Amino acid sequence: MSWPSLVILAPAEQRPSLEARIRCFELVPDAVTGGEKLHWQGHSYYLDLSGGILTDFEPDELDHLRTRIGEPYGVYVSCNSMDAARAFLRQVLAGFDGLVDTNHFEILPATEFLTLMDRYPLWDWRRRPSTDLP
Predict the structure, then answer these.
(1) Are 1 and 9 in contact (CB under 8 A)?
(2) Which residues pair with 74 in a beta bridge?
(3) I want to staple 61 with a disulfide (CB 3.0 to 4.6 A). Which of 8, 57, 100, 105 is the partner?
(4) CA distance 35 to 13
């Protein structure tokens, strides 16, 4: 299966705060993709902090996001493994008031997403939606 990926979503006015949370990891520019790379705790990541990931959303999805958080800003995150994803997300999402798009038909509040990761440490949101958890 491909690298786990997701989109962290925040109100546009919180963009500086979300970027600061992520940039503290000392990202490195990726000349090939225009995004940024991270090697942290033995894991590899690709991130796009441009906000351009929102062009991948359908108009009705964007409307739904606007009703939930206002004008959205999104960060695309791809991780080399589920362990990498869990480690990174626990750091970035702690105390964050936004949403997580699993890229598998679910958009969850970040606090709920973290709770599910803690309750189900082996949860793979690519294979099992949160609604199927016990």
Answers:
(1) no
(2) 9
(3) 57
(4) 21
